[in-house]
Amino acid sequence: EFIMDRFLAGFGRCDITPVGPTRINSSRVSDHILDPLYIPCVAVSDGEETALMITVDLRNVYGHITVPGFEAICAATGVPADHIFLTATHNHSAPDVSNVEDESIQRYLKDIFFPQLTECAKLAVADLKPATLAINQGDTEPMNHVRRILLADGTVHVRFLDIGMQYLPDGSEQRITETLAEIEAKLGADGATGWRTLTMGE
Question: What is the mean pLDDT of the segment spanning 163-192?
Answer without folding.
Answer: 49
